[in-house]
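Tokens help. Our protein:
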Amino acid sequence: MSKDNIYILGIESSCDDTSASVICNGKVLSNVVANQEVHAKYGGVVPELASRAHQQNIVPVVQLAIEQAGITKHDLKAIAFTRGPGLMGSLLVGTSFAKSLALGLNIPLIDVNHMQAHILAHFIKEENSKIPPFPFVCLTISGGHTQIVKITNHFEMEILGETIDDAVGEAFDKSAKILGLPYPGGPLIDKYAQLGNSKAFKFTKPKVGDLEFSFSGLKTGILYFIQKNIKENPDFIKENLHDICASIQYTIIEILMDKLKNTVKQTEIKHIAIAGGVSANSEIRKRLALAEKHWGWTTYIPKFEYTTDNAAMIAIAGYLKYLNNDYSDISITAQARLKVTE
């Protein structure tokens, strides 16, 4: 094994997925994710159950990631872990494990901001991957965040606009709940929307600042719309499910695209990336690809496996920090709330 190989282990435990990944010089060798099925029956993530599941999963997941990478733990140069933001109980499991392992192996510990890692997933080296040049703009969309971030270098980021209430992922999941779809409902709306007419029903877009988002009013509007139509026809959802999903998705994606257009106008930056769990949505991917043709943007769309919470993005962020000798003190603590700029 070459001495020049920098093997970084990434550990991600911010919510309900336990994940470990090994990267070598920026290339992913393994990316193992253990999902927690336990939350589906509760219609959302239960923090106490999540942290217990992390405790059960973390050792086998890390072991499997190291095995799949074809190395031993003694080849590792550093341990990167998610410091925050996320659920405190879940973060503590990953933080404690990472500290113990780094101490045991006597190698550096590197803390990673989960939101920065979503953006830095774009720097994972893959065949045919497009890596965005600085500065670029990233639309970070997930269950907990909706922001437009300007990235000047790997760790210099500025929030240009964000949601003033709910996150976009929440808008998808709550809309799905209103329609009686199981949790998580966002991917199901995407699936059914493919079969529907996106212009069948019209929902009002919120009036907020040029780079701000708001989804609480839209959610309320969808709720009233469904309640009113069910009163007139109890089978309304069943008979129109595909069209309802397509119309909801169309409205949400229109809001996102409008804000991106405003951002390009204001910053004159035409390199546009997306990140976060909702960037797995097929419609936003399609619309961004079209934006290259229509408006001359260059767009950067991550591979599906790097959109939802995963440790490869933690490992790449850790690798970039390692190159800067940016290590953490062993006394570092998890932070449930952390801005992308921190």
Observations:
- The chain is about 40% helix and 20% strand.
- The two ends are 36 Å apart (CA to CA).
- Residues 81 and 270 are 32 Å apart (CA to CA).
- The beta strands are 7-12, 18-24, 27-34, 76-84, 109-113, 136-141, 146-153, 156-162, 271-275, 298-300.
